[in-house]
Task: structure prediction
Amino acid sequence: MELLAGFTQPIHQSQQAFRLILKALGEPGVRVTLADVPGWGAIGPAATSVLLTLADGATPVWLSLALGEQTVMDNLRFHTGAPVAERLDAAAFALFDTLPGAAQLTELSSGSETSPEFSATAVVQVASLSEGAALYLSGPGIETRRRISPILPAAVRDYLLNRPRRFPLGIDFLLVCGEGLMAVPRATHVEEC
Result:
């Protein structure tokens, strides 16, 4: 097994990354920087930080085919103890690099009426967090509305604009590019500019 770098100061760095991820989730559309860890191969630094911070033995992680190389899976298990999910509907976290399809997004768990907390989080690696078509966000954590412009895969953009499930059900999205992270939680309303 080839061991890839994780946090050099796991307690301090994971606490700092956790606070930044919470900031992004609490203030949808605000960009934060997660720079304390190098990426794992095709998985960028922000996505690696998310996995090191949030994944554990009780949170199965699904990796898209382009990211699911054995070295990455071995290091995910070594650093976090997280099992690798074979199916999307079993994943607590799904990491996409190749363009996710609409069927893949609907296969992720949206939670249930009695247990909405069992919905999945989609971590999507995008080409840019600021050079795509503009969208407006509104809802909790946003005073009026916030304009964002990440380059989104078509299926992700469509899912956000036409959420198939009403809150509290749905998928939370963490959009990552390099060291940058932006969140669009399931409580956030998204519309075109």
Summary: The CA atoms of residues 14 and 126 lie 23 Å apart. The helical segments are 10-26, 45-54, 70-80, 102-107, 154-161. The domain at 10-192 is CATH 3.40.50.11310 (Rossmann fold).
